[in-house]
Amino acid sequence: MPEAPPAAMRETAAVPKAHREALEYIERVTAGAAQVQRRVLAEILAQNAPAEYLRRIGVSGAAPGAVEAFRRAAPLVAYEDILPDVLRIANGDTSPILSGKPIREFLTSSGTSGGERKLMPTIADEMDRRSLLYSLLMPVMSQAVPGLDKGKAMYLYFVKAESRTPGGLPARPVLTSFYRSRHFLERPHDPYTVYTSPDEAVLCVDAYQSMYAQLLCGLVHRADVLRCGAVFASGFLRAIRFLEKHWPRLCRDIRTGTLDADITDPAVRGAVGRVLRADPALADAVEAECARPSWQGIIRRVWPNTKYIDVIVTGAMAQYIPTLEFYGGGLPLTCTMYASSECYFGLNLNPMCKPSEVAYTLIPTMCYFEFLPVHSGAAEPDHRDLVDLVDVKLGHEYELVVTTYSGLYRYRVGDVLRVAGFKNAAPMFSFVRRKNVALSIDSDKTDEAELHAAVSGAVQHLAPFGASLVEYTSYADATTIPGHYVLFWELREGGTAVPASVFEDCCLAVEEALNSVYRQGRAADRSIGPLEIRVVSDGTFDKLMDYALARGASINQYKAPRCVRPGPVVDLLDGRVQARYFSPKCPKWSPGSKLQWSSGCNAGAGANKASNGGVVA
């Protein structure tokens, strides 16, 4: 069982006062987790007493006994249950529907409902809670890695497209919201959080210019970089791929002290110009490493003082660990916090542990936490099954349920967690999986129902040739940068050969039918590569069944998996591939689809929300 750091956490005179106070705060709220949680729920109900939702379920938030009434009466809800209320707010209704305080923006979840991003209503105060959790990260990390105040962090941060609802509220990803906030832009100087990336580069909406400028500044500050990272492992690997492609141009800029003409954003040019100076020796040093035939250990070679790589490597991001280890050359991979669009949850108190041992301690002041035991039975759970934060059992698995200050009440987040230990009275959870997720490359999440609908539509392109689909499965190929979806198709051929262009049309048709988060990753963020169809030989899925039966599966219960993981099964399928086809272009995508603001987006489609056991993008 993993153990949290001791109560004293090596408090010495050398530890900054702010760090001591942060560590003491963690000790205090985890030791009194039960009392803190009761107070948090009482605060949420009192603050949101005017909310129509609470009156609807028979809870008077400001009345004596509100906590007990809520615990008795409040139902479990999913996004589809609150969607009518969300749409009222999005379309301009300013009455207190979910929250007693004004909704200031919507955070767009990386999960979807009916193909569109989920919209999480958020109040202004929530930014303070997010900032609080961020303020705890470096005090914890500094206990494990001293001296981080002596250099800089090369963290690659990016903003994403945002839109406005018909009612005029911003709708944007949670990290875009934070990077554009005064909490980030007006942050006081802290020697523990000095970044190589200028704010102007982070805020640049052009992904190429932002990446170029941030990597260039990271190279300029090469000797000062003590840690590097991005939010998701996939994003950090895209940066490495970008460096691999553009290092000659970056080295030329360093050699001459002149920024490439393709960087046209005035704010970015001004910010980079303040740090870029002609440095032939630095250019030679970077070029010598990048020009070597192998890029194994490139991070440690280009930034030799780096002590760790800070990226999310739990959940779907775990598939990138081998590639990160190759490029990192033995650098530790740290995973520091757990959050989503609904709420920020907690942090890893043992940040230098192995990725397989990451466990997040939920901070009891973030929201009111409850847990739904994960059972194999088919009975529909209700609120009477819920377990309090301090009552979960070691080794058991639970689905996370939250009640937030912004007006989500017993909301099923969809993350399945396993109790790995305790920090005082507060549990430490390892991230197990997302419910109902089949494929994920970046912040995208595609479930089996959505994938099946997309494939069913795409195979209609084969009908004119007399061909049909016998069976299929899929997997997320993380060996390419960026990663991409792969579909294995076994076909029944017709009388006419199917042209390659038709299979390419099938690839695009699948992509066009997937949710907006996937399509944004393909078309705008370029964080997902073109979808690939691999046509396998006749009898391949019979071989797949034989493999499963040989490993103990029941022939009476066997069905072909709709998603497989890298390993022997993928090797079996790849060994029988006859042809490969890729999507010829990006699927259509535009921010703020009109469908998102109408009730039509809840047309009975399966829903899916994303968390990777870390921060959503």
Name some characteristics of this structure.
617 residues; 21 strands; 20 helices; five-stranded mixed β-sheet; globular; eight-stranded antiparallel β-sheet; alpha+beta
Please summarize what this structure is.
With 617 residues, the protein is α+β, with helices and mostly antiparallel strands.
Can you put this structure into words, describing what you see?
- By secondary structure, the chain is α+β, with helices and mostly antiparallel strands.
- The protein has 20 helices and 21 strands.
- Strands 9-10-11-16-15-14-12-13 form an eight-stranded antiparallel sheet. Strands 1, 2, 4, 5 and 21 form a five-stranded mixed sheet that branches.
- Strand 14 (397-403) and strand 15 (411-423) form a beta hairpin.
- Helix 10 crosses helix 11 (233-256), helix 11 (233-256) crosses helix 13 and helix 16 runs antiparallel to helix 17 (500-513).
- The longest helix is centred in the middle third of the chain and has 24 residues, at 233-256.
- It is globular.
- Mean pLDDT is 88; it is low at 6-13 and 600-611.
